[in-house]
Amino acid sequence: MAEGRIIKALSGFYYVQSNNRIFQCRGRGVFRKNKVTPLVGDMVDFDESNPGEGYIQNVHPRKNELIRPPIANIDQAVIVTSASQPDFSTLLLDRFLVLIESKHIQPIIFVSKMDLVSDEEKSKILQCKEEYEKIGYTFKLMTTKEPELMREIVPYFKDKITVIAGQSGVGKSSMLNTINPLFNLETKEISESLGRGKHTTRHVELLEVSGGLVADTPGFSSLEFNELELEDLPSCFPEMQERSDACKFRGCIHNKEPKCAVKQAVEAGDIPTYRYEHYLSFIDEIQSRKPRY
For the CP-type G domain, which residue ranges apply (predicted)? Predict the structure, then answer.
């Protein structure tokens, strides 16, 4: 029995990387019976039946998983958001951050197209950069004229599994293509072979980049809080989580409770007002969600 990581799943086959070799494996029927679907990113035990082929016998416990794209054991997510076209939005950024924090994934924030905004907008984004860095987030700025700045992210990939997240048109593909031309080759081949206007489900694959693995499919295609429970929301805001022990009530939701350390920090200017307002809007969203049965 050998151990390895699934780096690609396609047409019922799982491609497992083990000791710098790739094995084409099938899953045992026991998975279907137990309703376990192996995912890209899973650590697995497998038997080699023929040279380069085998059967997955066991899937190791996961530290996290995404539904779209279907991938497990992610260490970090690079959130690419833009300064312009589409405009920079702290609300959208916080939405991504909450989804990523809820999965216990480390976020890195990249703001692209900084050369396309006015000085006034630039100073607002720089102010946000300072505030997010104070919370503890890595926050990088990029311009369209200096794509090599995207390479600044490369050292972060080492020994990690990374997904790239962000809305359409912010420069996720450009970033991946700058980091590794292999990504470009793949997207070009796929678009040419499929023709325009055809919908297809792309398989997810982990590609090796700078000593780590990067998912070739953007993460978080849905930005709904369908899986997030209200009591878990405060822990998705690190600056609230670190103050929660100072609240009068245990399990304080930092909303209507008295003697709340988070509300005091907002009033004192230690937590940005917009972060708290976004937090309250996310509470409303979760509370108004239709019940699941």
Answer: 63-223
Q: State yes or no: 150 annotated in a binding site.
A: no
Alpha helices in 13-161 (DSSP H): 29-33, 90-102, 119-135
Q: What is the CA radius of gyration of the chain?
A: 21
Residue 227 structure tokens: 């899986």
Q: Does residue 151 share a domain with residue 49?
A: no
169-217 residue pLDDT tens: 666 666 677 777 666 545 444 444 444 433 344 678 898 888 899 987 7
Total-model pTM = 0.86
Asked whether residue 269 is marked as a ligand-binding residue, the answer is: no
**Both structure tokens of 50:** 């023929």
78 and 55 together in one domain:
no
Q: Has 284 been labeled as part of a binding site?
A: no
Asked if 85 and 155 sit in the same domain, the reply is: yes
| pLDDT tens figures, 269-285 | 999 999 999 999 999 99
Distance, in Å, from the CA atom of 130 to the CA atom of 177, rounded to the nearest integer, reads 29
Within a domain: residue 292?
no
CA distance 240 to 279: 10
* φ, ψ of residue 154 in degrees (nearest 5): -55, -45
Give the total number of structural domains in the chain.
3
| Residues 74 and 21 grouped into a single domain | no
Q: Hey, what's the torsion of the CAs at 32, 35, 37, 42, to 10 degrees?
A: -120
- pLDDT score for 172: 65
Query: Annotation-wise, does 247 bind a ligand?
Result: yes
Q: Provide the domain limits for residue 236.
A: 230-287
Closest CA to 223 of 167, 169, 163: 167
Q: Annotated binding residue at 75?
A: no
Tell me: do 88 and 195 sit in the same domain: yes
- ∠ CA 62-66-69 to the nearest 5 degrees? 130
The verdict on whether residue 173 carries a ligand-binding annotation is yes
